[in-house]
Write the structure tokens for this entry.
Amino acid sequence: MMIEKVIGKNRDWLYAVFRIAAGFLFFSHGAQKLLGWFGGTAMWGNGQMVTAGLIEFIGGLLILAGLFSRLAALASFLLMIAAYFIAHAGNGIWPIVNKGELAILYAAAFLVVLVYGNGKASVEKALLKKEHF
């Protein structure tokens, strides 16, 4: 099929787009919490939000750049699972009802990054010539 040819030929670059987009969006959440960027409010008075913001900001940048992506994805995955159970699960079983769908979606995305690593367009491979973790 034609779509299989296009996807097969561009699979590595399509994954890079996915990794970069997920990293940028996650970084954006951290920037909202820490710096008040993107229409957010800095939350330096709340230790839990600062911790989440740091993981989102740093983890998002590392995933975006393709630098130690697996380690960043693991920390980010664990954060999203914790966020789901701390902030959402108590409000009902279904993520669409308890407003936890974004946490679940990010957790799934970070599992993909954990499995596939940096891929193409990776700072780590450019600087260190291979993926280390």
Observations:
- The helical segments are 2-35, 47-65, 69-88, 95-98, 101-116, 123-128.
